[in-house]
Amino acid sequence: MNITLPAIVLLFFSLSLSAQVEMIGFEDLRPELEKEDDTVRVINFWATWCAPCVKEMPYFVKAHEKYRDQKVKFLLVNLDMPSNLEELVLPFMERFNIQAKVVLLDDPDANRWIPVVDQRWTGAIPATVIYKRNLRTFVEGTLTFEELDGYISDKL
Amino acid sequence: MIISLPESSRARPSNSPKGEDRANPLPVFYNNKGETAEGIGQSYLAFYNNVTAYYSCIRGNEQRTTNNEQNFKHMKKRIFGIFGMALFAVSLMAQPAALQVGDKAPSFNLLNVDGEYVSLSDYSDQKGVVLIFTCNHCPYAVAWEDRIIALHHRFADEGFPVVAINPNDSVVVPADSYTEMQKRAREKGFPFPYLLDAEQDIYPLYGATRTPHIYLLERGEDGGFYVRYIGALDNNYREAHAVTETYLADAITALLKGEDPDPTETRAIGCTIKKQD
Prior knowledge:
heterodimer; A: alpha/beta; globular; B: Glutaredoxin
């Protein structure tokens, strides 16, 4: 009994985390890059093995919290191997307290989709798109919180 | 020993196919290629537990372009006109333009894992060179490693051997140190040179931003090497058997037939090249 309850809680917790991370192909992601509404969208490409991605993740968490009540949507596009979802990605999300939406982009044919995300992207990660309609910022490399905050607020 | 310094690297060659329209040095300003200091991905848990300490010591530059910055760049253009050559010279040293297909490849003379120096001009008896910026630690580099070895075995005798260059700073990424390179080359039995860009002054001349980043070079009639293809080895880093496009092998095959590669450029996800501040 003493063990069962925490076990059940843990199970539900991990299930809810799993449910948060959808595995998608690029065609599922594409609409997120082409919205025409008045919401600022922040789309960050990252992986758990990528140190500069890990470095900037707290800034995305902080910005997500800061803009929670405004028209700003975050999408964290994970590029880990799908087989590492349970073992690496979910614990990482828990550890960094990531509340923003995370998807795992399971689409290894990157040559096809990298230029669609942004023509300037050479393929190194992290990479971040921040846009509202035709106001568009693309960054290949790490962001500071101040930079991220600035790129969001100048589009609000 | 062959001393080969960048006879071609600082200036746009006039005999390059795209020479005319790329002769203007201004794109140097636009080409704000940045490299971000990155750590090791492989010892995931280790750096995970030391995130704060780990990141306090690294900092990167970024490539960023915004709509507003476009205006700023126009301003830079004017500044260029005013300050002229001095500024130009400084900017060239700071941020060389990335090579394009058709450009002459900068020479290099770098230390191999066997203790000898290897220069691009050592390959003047070959049809070309498959130059690959790669490293030990990057999961993508590791994923493509066996296919790089196989490609060398397939094309070296036909005149297109592989030359691998590790562009990473070993202080930022200890797993990419010269000793670790030697170890990796031995373990995998690399049949090609694995060179260290110790001063980190070669990869910026090529405009490499990630590992792996491939430059297929063909020797021209003037004896120089020219870039014929830039990009990825194939279209699936994860599984060799799921590959449907063998970009690099197709490009080499085209050159062997006297044809132009198509496509001439592809992209792939990769690890940022790591340097210190």
